[in-house]
Sequence to fold (337 residues):
Amino acid sequence: MQNTWLMMSIVCLSGTFLIGDEVFFKSGDRLTGTIKSMDGGKMVFESVVAGSITLKMADIKTFSTEKPIEIVQTNGTVFVQKVGSGADGQVALLMDDVQPKTVALEGISKVNPSKAKWTGSLVASGVLTRGNTESSTASVGAEATRRSARDRIDVGAGYYFARQRDNSTRQDSTIADNWFLRGKYDYFFTKKFFGYGNMKYEKDRITYLDMRLSPGAGLGYQWIENPGLNFFTEGGLSYVHEEYTEPDETRDYMAARLAYHLFYAINEHVKGFHNLEAYPSLEDVQAVLATTDIGLRAAMTERLFVEAKAQLAYNSQPADAREKKDLRYTLGVGWTF
Fold:
């Protein structure tokens, strides 16, 4: 009998000391379980009673953890510490051999953030027309991004081809044949302010552009960044090198670079995007290069989507007999990873 009472006492004491993480609400309620993560003002919590639930940080008074967690502050500082409950709107970082450090909940950006990984998409489109008009078009585009707390890597590539047949002569002519490669690295000095270095390579056989290389560097500002809305602007300097074949001509000049990126969720299944990148020459006020696009993506499955996009490429000083503007509409199917 004494052994039975001893075992029950041990179990009760173990439950007292191994209580787990706790969240204290402003309403006076309390949850026990495990804090999984926190981002965008919401905490994912594994409750002993209710399972995995999402909590609003605005409703939380304080919290504590049984084991160390990773805390990212809004100023970019990162701590991996055990957390103790604090006063209203605060927690205490329990550091070894030093006084606990008080941190305001509003000063915490993320808890246990997901590790940096590559995400992106691959989109392909094509149109085949036969009859009174005979034409074929095809395009493919790929983009990938790796985002961590301190930096961001962005790469992309694309190819567009179109051919048309003159039914009177039965001759085929290529009316579009261009491709590009790009890469950009962003380093965040603060949560929103970053510096970047970028490189872009382009080739367009129809506009007689044998190559355009435009490396550059500058500064950017991340106005907002969350799963439903991402918007940043950039400004800097670029060196532009162009080689044309007809006529045989090489152009080299310094240009400013102005750009922005906008991604937004219309609803759970439809996303929109809009990008602009402009290179006004610093040596010739009449020389401007610019590209812009706008489009929508509608999810068909978790990975598969349909994309509709309009894209404009502008060159204020094209090769002889070429147009300044190229406007393109595409409808394609894509895959995210």
User: Anything to note?
Assistant: The radius of gyration is 28 Å. The chain has two domains: 2-111, 118-336. The first strand starts at residue 21 and ends at 25.
